[in-house]
Amino acid sequence: MSTLIAVLFDGFSYGMLLFLLSVGLSVTLGLMNFTNLAHGAFAMLGGYVTYALVESAGWPFLATLPLAFLATALVAAVFEAVLFRRIYKSGELNQVLLTIGVVFASYAVAAFFFGTVHHSVDLPDYLKGFVEIGDLKLPAYRIFLVIVALAVTAGLILFLEFTRFGAMVRAAVDNDKVAGGLGLNINAIFALTFALGSGLAGLGGALAIDILFIDPNFGFHILVPVLIVVSIGGLGSIWGSFLAAAALGIFDVAGKFLFPDFGPFLIYLFMVVILFFRPNGFFARR
Hints:
Blueprint: H1 2-32, H2 39-55, H3 61-82, H4 92-114, E1 130-133, E2 136-139, H5 140-161, H6 164-174, H7 176-181, H8 186-207, H9 218-221, H10 223-233, H11 238-258, H12 266-277
Antiparallel strand pairs: 1-2
Helix pairs in contact: 1-5, 1-8, 1-10, 1-11, 2-3, 2-4, 2-8, 3-8, 6-8, 10-11, 11-12
């Protein structure tokens, strides 16, 4: 029984990591109607920021997390202003082609500066080892991931659903001309929203460095599971992404544990079944 609970917890914690990596895309794709396949590249940037600060500058791991978020958000805001803003209304195909091109370019830049090998960091002692709860031994770092994911979920829901900024974002998306006529700065709202979503990707990449590791292919590796989470959860829904990521993580880890021969394929079966009955996801806004 304790083994099964441990497997379920590992799956849930992995799902929380997927949530941290994907919730920013749910924000930009769901609220801004922008198909941003470069989301994984921004997650990779956050991971490399943490790696560089820990390994080269000697920063504590936790101290690098806010900077991974801020640095990624700043870079994303520049990309939004220089590149992405020009194609908001040019159709999904142009958005896909440009953003996937950014992923290929990010691979080359990462390989030039950091090489093509996997990178990780040495975690502090209090995040290593296990926490014993009765007969259970749960990994300390995975407990930390769950706590961070719950905090991010609560913060995002409060920020986007119950603040004036969240209302301005929804108004700008629904009808930018009317919102602009009412005095809202549409460009600034979209830039801040995009920076927020990408900064969350950078935070997810920083937290993934001990589980998924960081290499130049990171932007490609996480793209499929991130898109699955957003598709199942529903565009623009924070709760939907949370539930989808948790279910996907549990289904993936438990499936590999119970059916090791074809466990890796179960997440795709899970996606097909969910989208067959709910093609717009759990809690789609549209």
